[in-house]
Design goal:
Elements: H1 5-16, H2 18-36, H3 44-52, H4 54-86, E1 112-118, E2 131-136, H5 137-140, E3 144-147, H6 154-167, E4 179-183, H7 189-199, E5 206-210, E6 215-216, H8 226-241, H9 248-267, H10 273-281, H11 285-296, E7 301-305, H12 307-312, H13 314-317, E8 323-325, E9 330-334, H14 337-346, E10 351-355, H15 361-376, H16 383-402, H17 404-410, H18 414-417, E11 429-430, H19 434-440, E12 443-447, H20 454-473, H21 475-481, E13 490-494, H22 511-517, E14 523-529, H23 532-538, H24 543-548, E15 553-556, H25 562-572, E16 574-589, E17 592-593, E18 600-601, E19 604-619, H26 623-628, E20 633-637, E21 648-652, H27 663-668, H28 673-681
Parallel strand pairs: 3-14, 3-15, 4-12, 4-13, 5-12, 6-11, 13-14
Antiparallel strand pairs: 1-2, 1-21, 7-9, 7-10, 8-9, 15-20, 16-19, 17-18, 20-21
Length: about 675
């Protein structure tokens, strides 16, 4: 007869802590008995013993006190042993338990994430004491990574439930609701995100960057160092078209783009991918820019004439060297005293004398470095080498030039960022800086499916991720300067993470470096990828090792990749397991062979048997287990922010399924959304 799990829960507590309980109860009984029944030292017999044999008296007195404690200890030990024998039941003998109530994430007062239900740690069977595997807030900041093959349930089992729980936390509190960014490659995750935000009343916080929307995003318009921007672009180029054995080409890509980006920043304070493309591909544009910017550092004065006044006396003014300057909206010529007197005496045109505003000293130093690089380094390259370097860059940058829709969204004109009306894009609005989005509680979604353009999707996603990470890390000095201010947590969610992953080494903005610091600025990174092999394919050298160790909590769903299964098995660890072996031997004396039967026989014989116990280190989870996991069934190695939790079977809760229904009940109806909803309505 199966007993109630609730009763067995208390029995297990008594049995598991029987030694501590026996010690505590026996100590309490000893103190009480000592006060009620103290030794009678005035007894005549004891007085005689104390007088004749003092050592024996002290032994009797201390032994009496000792028995007041040990006798209750033996009694309680006996009682707990009897409870273990007659009341304790194995898990297989207990009735199956019921999951605790799943608290609505909108009603939670403490930030946490429920990954799924746990029944038995090492056996994929229902158990009598199921519970929710919950990662508290301090554990969320250490990162969560999910690994699983196609159709294993990464998106519906982890990504969507995580978005629902995290973005609905304190949804009605403007100061405490979570901000975040969601990167995807399929094209449907952002719609799911919109539905989740609408469900928790936060639809106004959603900001989407897509080809069909009115939000414009320039990945080059930020405060990131020109070298870091150039290196990111060069890294994306080599990851798309492959990295050769010679590092010269990637170094050359980086060097050229770095100086072009720096030159544009000095001249305009703004540039786009199209500006970068047109400057790199044109042989004379770069040199013309150098001459133009160099002339701007002069503090010489100019004479300026308006367009209408100039055209009225163009025959007289044209030989004097006036040139139209679009940025000044004037015809300009270098000022001299003779030119000014000539204009006063021979023309009636109105003119003005202007002195160019000098650049900051640091701008001049930057320009000098660009000028020196061009005339002393780039100019001496052979033409075929220059062509190869430029071709390697423009093949990638042309992605932004050839598609008008991409150019409109990701290469907006400077007027939009200056807040001025823009005739070419009247409905466009720029994406605010990520530091503002994070502190305001906004949730940004990049809806750019890889199917549209894999190279471009990888580029935009990677550069947006770098922008977000830089804004998160810049929170650290602000949080240190304002320790009493509440800073909201922010969430980084990336599905199919292998498409956007970057690592350190020679990369100044790798994910591993960001994750090593993301705990302090309250960032919650959650990523999902197919396998360790897919990450290795996307990352150079051994960068995958440094990246994986940055995620403290890992979820392993079913996989078809042997390397992932091996990594998961090693990560779960090993334990000592006892192996029992039996040896049976037979011996006989006076053996002989029968004449008729031809068999051996003997008049005397003996049989002996021996039993041996040996301990071996064996994996908690064999590699084969990870190939046999079912849909939404996983092995989780979690970290709660203080100590690692033991590896265990965990059953994820797909977003379209009732949360209170056990995974084993859901499995019986084959995880069909329609069938499960009908079953839930019964």
């Amino acid at each position: 007869m199966r007993e109630s799990p609730r009763l067995q829960k208390y029995v297990r507590l008594l049995v598991e802590h029987r030694l501590i309980l026996s010690l505590g109860l026996s100590t309490a009984c000893g103190i009480v008995l000592h006060s009620l029944y103290p030794i009678h030292a005035d007894d005549p017999l004891l007085l005689l013993i104390a007088y004749e044999r003092p050592p024996i008296f002290h032994a009797l007195a201390h032994g009496y006190d000792l028995f007041l404690y040990t006798t209750p200890f033996l009694f309680f030990s006996l009682m707990f042993s009897l409870a273990y024998i007659h009341l304790y039941r194995k898990d297989s003998e207990l009735a199956l338990g019921v999951l605790p109530t799943y608290l609505d994430p909108r009603a939670r007062r403490k930030l946490s994430l429920i990954l799924g239900e746990v029944h038995r740690q090492l056996v994929p069977n229902p158990g009598p004491f199921p519970y929710w595997l919950t990662i508290p807030e301090r554990g969320l900041y250490t990162g969560i990574a999910s690994f699983g093959s196609i159709g294993s349930g990464k998106t519906y089992g982890l990504i969507l439930p995580a978005m629902r729980q995290l973005f609905s936390y304190r949804a009605d509190d403007p100061e405490r609701k979570l901000s975040g960014i969601v990167l995807e490659v399929k094209g449907d995750l952002c719609r799911q995100l919109q539905r989740i935000l609408k469900w928790c009343g936060r639809e106004q916080d959603y900001v989407e960057v897509s080809l069909d929307g009115d939000v414009r995003y320039n990945p080059l318009n930020n405060s990131l160092d020109p070298y870091a921007q150039a290196f990111n672009i060069a890294s994306i180029i080599t990851s798309i078209w492959g990295k050769g054995r010679e590092p010269f080409w990637q170094q050359s890509y980086t060097d050229l783009m770095r100086h072009v980006i720096l030159l544009h920043r000095i001249r305009d304070g703004y540039l786009t991918m199209v500006d970068l493309f047109r400057t790199v591909i044109s042989a004379g544009t770069l040199e013309a820019m150098l001459s133009e910017v160099g002339s701007r550092f002069s503090t010489a004065s100019y004479i300026g004439i308006a367009k209408d006044a100039y055209h009225g006396q163009e025959s007289i003014l044209s030989p004097l060297g006036f040139e139209w300057r679009q940025d000044a909206d004037l015809y300009l010529a270098g000022w001299t005293e003779q030119l000014e007197q000539l204009l006063v005496q021979q023309t009636s045109a109105e003119f003005g004398v202007y002195t160019r505003k000098p650049y900051r000293p640091d701008q001049r130093e930057r320009f000098e470095s660009v000028r020196y690089w061009y005339w002393e380094h780039w100019k001496f390259f052979r033409s075929e080498i220059k062509t190869s370097i430029i071709q390697g860059i423009v093949v990638f940058l042309s992605l932004f030039e050839t598609d008008p829709q991409v150019r409109r969204v990701f290469c907006p004109p400077k007027e939009l960022y200056d807040g001025k009306p823009c005739a070419v894009d009247p409905n466009g609005r720029v994406l605010p800086p990520f530091d503002e989005l994070i502190e305001s509680g906004a949730v940004v979604g990049l809806n750019f499916p890889v199917a549209l353009n894999p190279a471009l999707a990888k580029t935009i996603g990677t550069m947006m991720k770098v922008d977000y990470q830089r804004a998160v890390l810049l929170r650290i000095p602000r949080m240190d300067a304002e320790p009493n201010r509440h800073y909201r947590p922010t969430v980084f969610i990336c599905d199919e993470y292998q498409n956007f992953a970057t690592v350190g080494g020679d990369n100044p903005t790798g994910d591993d470096r960001f994750l090593s610091l993301s705990r302090q600025p309250k960032c919650i990174p959650i990523v999902a990828t197919q396998s360790v092999s897919s990450l290795k394919e996307a990352l150079p050298n051994e960068g995958v090792k440094t990246l994986l160790q940055a995620f403290r909590s890992k979820i392993f769903l079913t996989t078809s990749d042997p390397e992932t299964a091996r990594y998961a098995s090693e990560l779960c660890g090993k334990e000592d397991r006892t192996h029992i072996s039996y040896i049976v031997s037979e011996s006989s004396t006076n053996a002989n062979v029968g004449l008729l039967s031809g068999r051996t026989s003997s008049s005397k014989g003996s049989v002996s048997a021996s039993k041996q116990y040996q301990k071996h280190k064996e994996p908690l989870f064999e590699e084969k287990i990870f190939f046999d996991l079912k849909n939404a069934q996983s092995v989780v190695v979690a970290f709660d922010g203080v100590s690692p939790l033991p590896p265990t079977y965990c059953y994820l809760k797909p977003d379209f399924l009732p949360v209170q229904m056990s995974w084993f009940e859901q499995e019986q109806i084959n995880f069909e959304p329609g069938a499960i909803q009908k079953e839930a309505l019964k």
